Amino acid sequence: xxxxxxxxxxxxxxxxxxxxxxxxxxxxxxxxxxxxxxxxxxxxxxxxxxxxxxxxxxxxxxxxxxxxxxxxxxxxxxxxxxxxxxxxxxxxxxxxxxxxxxxxxxxxxxxxxxxxxxxxxxxxxxxxxxxxxxxxxxxxxxxxxxxxxxxxxxxxxxxxxxxxxxxxxxxxxxxxxxxxxxxxxxxxxxxxxxxxxxxxxxxxxxxxxxxxxxxxxxxxxxxxxxxxxxxxxxxxxxxxxxxxxxxxxxxxxxxxxxxxxxxxxxxxxxxxxxxxxxxxxxxxxxxxxxxxxxxxxxxxxxxxxxxxxxxxxxxxxxxxxxxxxxxxxxxxxxxxxxxxxxxxxxxxxxx
Length: 351
Hints:
Layout: H1 30-44, H2 47-50, E1 56-60, E2 63-72, E3 78-79, E4 82-83, H3 84-97, E5 102-113, H4 118-135, E6 138-147, E7 155-164, E8 181-184, H5 190-200, H6 216-224, E9 231-234, H7 239-251, E10 254-258, H8 266-275, E11 288-292, H9 297-305, E12 314-319, E13 326-330, E14 336-339
Parallel strand pairs: 5-6, 10-13
Antiparallel strand pairs: 1-2, 2-7, 3-4, 5-7, 8-11, 8-12, 9-11, 10-12, 13-14
């Protein structure tokens, strides 16, 4: 613990047993949640922030807007299936989509290390431009800072996004109902393992690319199709397990998963088995879960299967009748285990 500070500006809320930030504080697990709850939420307390969603839904002049921001520190900057620029744009578009919003505008903030190659920067900016144009949004403002060599790790990017909610849709874990189904749009773990394999120089028998993609078009089809979406979450830091644990905790509902319904590509499964990683906690950048009434499952799947990013969509679980906050998964031999938040991250610097 740090020494006691009696000054007026001292923070009265110690963050666990740590007096300094450790890597696990940024991993999306228990330490991240503790940092957010005991420091940020305590200081910035307001209704929009307290929802703890990736986007804040705000009302302005009778319009419902979604506002989000995110920073990207991925290593390496270029990886199979994308780069930090594509990741930054898609990640922000996806955060807006998870609130049911149609993206309108993005910002771009760059922190560049002295000595960074202009050619590499040009490729990354072009990647951002191409992805934004494909989504029909403009990057309308930004900022550029340069730090001394050795103090910036190449390039960091921050993007913020504004979107509009065209319908009366209101997504929240509190909307979960008994017998709702959980649908995922594809296989899991590609992004985290693709990043790690590139970083560590692993030679995989099969080509593995990140699933990095803009999900807003697929989400729009679900909304326009009349699907009564109760909650959505993209499966970034902490993967499928962490996203569902957060939803279950907020809803105070039990979610039961079926392992046989969750697709995992062979290279992802192989690397996880060799390194002792749990694929349910590995990051994705083009996967999301939607929770909706079981009566609409077939309709939702039909819509998703018709879209390139939803061809593998499947029902992977349901909301259980019990009211205890818990996420369980039944494996192939019928054994059930409880999924719990990790203290940190299995794979740092993946987004």
